[in-house]
Amino acid sequence: MILLPIGQKIQENLNTYYLNIEKLIEHYQGELGTGSVYFQSVRAEGAIYFDKDEILNAILESKEEKIDGLNAVNHLIKLASEQNFAVKIYQLDPEHIYFWANLANAKDIYKGLSTEFTDLEGLIKKMSSENLTGYIDVLISKSNESGFVFFNSGQIIGGSYSWKKGELDDSATGWKKLVEKTKSSGGTFNVRSINIPNKIQKMEKVELKKAKPAAVTVAEPRPKTPEPNPAATVALSMQLEGLLDIFERTIKSNKKIKKDFDTVLKKKFLEKVEKYPFLDPFSGDFKYSNKKITFNAKIPEQSLSGAIYESIMELAKELEISDHFLSTIKPWSQKYSIELSNYA
Question: What's this model's pTM, rounded to 2 decimal places?
């Protein structure tokens, strides 16, 4: 199991089915500076750690192997193009980025300690006084509960606990609760150290594919954009939500279609980003989730409607359901016939 770092979760529910991993990392190097990309599938999980200039380290774990460094980066990028991984993005504190990037390389310094001879609270104080950079791994006796307490230069920076389903917690409440559980039920401890040199020895630089800079053109002055009409925005949302809902139900009712609706829709939107930049999931201008649309009211109505309609009709053709879908949306088409005439 790869321990997720303590940091701000920026994105989740992404999928490698429609992501370009190299461009994703480049984007967040510029956007966040320091962070990690976490990958998870039924067969493997991995993480890539980066700062604004380069990839610092990576880890890949499966039932068959555990690898890190450049080899792990290459494997993850290759696997991401072959199988579906769920993806999360974390922004990490620059002060602790090298801790998390090197966590997988931790070495045992004390192994098999128990409450019979060692008090966890005393062990935590000892590790703090010795300026430990690493963690204490705790297994509670007579139960399936466990936890980790993380140290960076003797300072406790957080913990991970089974009763919180592995989510990391940077408060003192978690590790104090862990201490109380070992006092009442007993436990065993392992202490592991992470070696972070004063001058970080970064892994061999990974060359990511750089996008060619766009040609610079001088645009003609644009007329002032009119203020958005709230009523029109609501009406447009209802119109497009209705269309997307019909399309989603059409796909899910067809047993021949094994693909996930959300995944194919996001992939199609990404294909349209060059023509409709607001469909870029990282722009924050448009989102469709739980059958609801949210969008930047400054997006021209015709552009947004055209983007959604065009995407759906292309998908219907690719999934070979065009005739059935056109028949299904007849009532919707009649209701919005005037609007459709603008972008059909």
Answer: 0.58
